[in-house]
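Dear colleague,

Following up on Tuesday's group meeting, I ran the structure prediction for the two-component complex that the binding team flagged. I've pasted the input sequences exactly as they went in, so you can double-check that nothing got truncated or mislabelled along the way. The structure tokens for the whole assembly follow below. Feel free to forward this to whoever is handling the docking comparison.

Inputs:
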Amino acid sequence: MMQFMLLFSRQGKLRLQKWYEAHPDKVKKKITRELISTILARKPKMSSFLEWKDLKIVYKRYASLYFCCAIEQQDNELLTLEVIHRYVELLDKYFGSVCELDIIFNFEKAYFMLDELMVGGEVCETSKKNVLKAIAAQDLLQEDEAVEGALREIGLY
Amino acid sequence: MPAVRGDGMRGLAVFISDIRNCKSKEAEVKRINKELANIRSKFKGDKTLDGYQKKKYVCKLLFIFLLGHDIDFGHMEAVNLLSSNKYTEKQIGYLFISVLVNTNSDLIKLIVQSIKNDLGSRNPVHVNLALQCIANIGSKEMADAFGSDIPKLLVSGETMDVVKQSAALCLLRLFRTTQEIIPGGEWTSRIIHLLNDQHMGVVTAACSLIEALVKKNPDEYKGCVSLAVSRLSRIVTASYTDLQDYTYYFVPAPWLSVKLLRLLQHYPPPDDPGVRGRLNECLDTILNKAQEPPKSKKVQHSNAKNAVLFEAISIIIHSDSEPNLLVRACNQLGQFLSHRETNLRYLALETMCLLATSEFSHEAVKKHQETVINALKTERDVSVRQRAVDLLYAMCDRSNAEEIVQEMLNYLETADYSIREEMVLKVAILAEKYAQDYTWYVDVILNLIRIAGDYVSEEVWYRVIQIVVNREDVQGYAAKTVFEALQAPACHENMVKVGGYILGEFGNLIAGDTRSAPAVQFQLLHSKYHLCSAATRALLLTTYIKFINLFPEIKSQIQDVLKSNSNLRSSDAELQQRASEYLHLSVTTTTDVLATVLEEMPPFTEKESSILAVLKKKSGRMSAQEAQREARVQAREGNAAPATEKAQNAQLKTKPSSNAAFPIPQLNNSTSADLLGLSTPPATQNSIQSNTGVLVDVLGDLYGGGGTNTHNGTTTPASLSMSGATDNIKKFVCKNNGVLYENDIIQIGIKSEFRQNLGRIGVFYGNKTSMPLQAFNPTVSVGPGQQGKVTVQVKPVEPSIDAGAQVQQLVNCECIEDFNGLPDLTVGFTYGNVPQRLALHLPLSCNKFFEPTDMNGESFFARWKNLSGPLQEAQKIFKATGPMETASIKTKLLGFGMQLLEGIDPNPENFVCAAIIHTRTQQIGCLLRLEPNRQAEMYRLTIRASKESTAQILADLLAEQF
């Protein structure tokens, strides 16, 4: 089971955090700080895996963003790298060459996307098509509501 | 500002831009505070906000939270959003809750109803939101509220696939908090059959759930094995176009394959030959595919393919029954050892560690020894080098031990600081385990000290001394080697310690050689004396007094040193005491007495090398994997184990009782105590007093009482034992020695000592009467509070105690995890043909495994704040039962085993303490604060501990003491 996923920038700024195991805020902050500094200190050719307490950390850098996941001992490191990659592909497809700014300004979308891919720390849907379909359905609802809102404003609904 | 998708909350985007434009941290904080004030006033204002505005502000709060600021309001507005009929508002409400709400929040109660409504919605998008939220919070309240709805959703024919997927994982999350949530009976087969579902997404999600269920109850879910194997077989043989979007970079359904392989690892190889054959075919195919040329150059392709491969290898190792597959797996990993991808090298080294423990593949792994040693030298990534060390450790056996140990020693000189300590432990263990010749072992350990002295922990150098003391054949060699090692102009203090100890015991074995004549040995050691710490000097003083016994010819030389002002008037009390007592010992006693007192140390008793325990503690990685590995190694070397055990038993018998009653040998003992870590040097004086004190106490009471209480045989002993009996068990929470129980027949005394997670309790049974106690049978049993958490080994005693005599029973105990209550001590005997039974308790409470910890105020409060979990704290307010004197409170707290930290609490009336409980599995940090209120004659006791449950146990124990 994945314990948490963190997205942070090369400057060490946290951009997204998803915790699948409950911790007090203080603990979360401490873990985040520790991991960000550990990972930023590592060189490019190093392995993408490291041991951290009793967890395994799997991370990968995409442009200016680091994606970092903590998994348990029995989980598969290589496939976790591909969970990260699938997530990046989804963001990319949705935003159209995603960049860090997209995730900053649309953080809620990034969350919704992750919730389709993973539930409770386990992979839920690995098909790119199906996830995008689900997100498109959400956007459709959103647009309907927006139109409805606009109509109501001018008294037509 | 990039385009905002969907309906876009303009205000939010503007706010985010503002924050990004802030030039300084201060400006950012200012902008955020302004926004927080604005939102707060909007939420508090009279004007009711519409859904859009609420959504926007909640979203801003979320963003502020993600920037790392604390958010303490807005929860109610988010809860309101949940019941909005607009999807986008609902969705933001759920997002806020899943990001900001912790499991134990009061808010949970408020959102249950909204979630229930959404779960029952006809719109699958709403149902999914609710499921994702439940899975995210995953608390017990959630399990209680929805435990019955979710299984129904999962298996209902009407549920849409997307909902089924979320439901399966949601159920899994709740199952992890509350195991009872899964209904049994017919549900089992319905859940298992999800593996046959048409939709690959549903199977993937269900497979995670089933794996967790199988872990808990393998028998009930046995039916899943054949389904999983056939599903796997279909995927493995599928062409990459068959599975459409579930093919990932030309690899068919890698996630599901890995899940299925993982699921199957919870079972032994299938009994049914058909199923078993099919599974082996799958594994074979996966291994074959690894050899095929890649279908894509992309790393995603190779990662996905190898992810499945590693999982297949994992199941091959797990079944440990197909030599052919094991060797193939090993060869495959061997190829990876020199792959250009660091990740693959890393994983190959890691996985090979497990292969090394299988008898079928151990030899195959050894073929790669060269490559692994090379990795140790050339890898640029320390985490990969660490894996290489692990693998060398795992592949080591008698045949290659010398080479591997040598390579590890070579590497140690340049090794990363972060892994040195662990390497030292590993080298020490290998050297001991595979030593055919103990001179080699001694050489290795001395090399360790030379190369990495700072990383050689006490356990390592204690161990070499234990081994030398216990093995006569190596003592001469050891003395010669340490003597040579000490010649080095700069040698590590640990070397001085080992050298001092060994020469003090066995220096005579090399004294014949003029180059290492007694005076030379003494000069050599003493030349290091002034550079050493007080603890080492104390040890050397003991060596010197031992020299006086071994080499009377240098007595006056040594006496001069003992007499010197720097020793006799040392500012260090321990040194001063040793110098003056040793001096007097050498002046006043006859050579016979001296020889007895300073006799060679008796062999040590030891169950297992304590170094191994330290190593296990050191690395988390050791835990699960290592446990399996150790178990296998032990099975593989099954023949060796009993032999060493026998040897240890033999040692046990030869060890003389350490129950010496005169104070001088205590000094001698105190060095042995140092070695075993039982006491720190400054405690010597106390230990003399308390030890002898108890002896006098126990014996004095015994004989004093025996004189006045002469019984006449006609009184019924049963009633006698009832009258005038005193059970002092409560007092033992804060002390280790004393009289536990006494009546007219028997007195039971206790003398106990504890070190780390181990303890030894001496129980003294004194017969106060003029008749023997027959059928004497004391038994110790652990109650439900201690079952599995503490082990107690009781040595048998003679079945009778003569009139006026005393027998001793030794109880060895080990703390496995924190425990509640005390073990029972039942003492049965017959006195004058009347059977007696005393139901007592053994004074073995959780706090006995405390190690006092000193710290300053700053770190105390930092730790205190860290331990803020609701179960990490226990508080008791209670009335004082005795006088509230500072001195007696301090004595009790010290006796409880904690370090009293003075001058830390702002209120000088209060007491704060810190200590660590050592258990086999973990160390539990404990902090205590005791606030006496003298007017009200009350105390308030607060304990915080790093492990939940521990604080309560300790508070219960201590509260009864005041």
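Chain A has a mean pLDDT of 91.

Cheers,
M.
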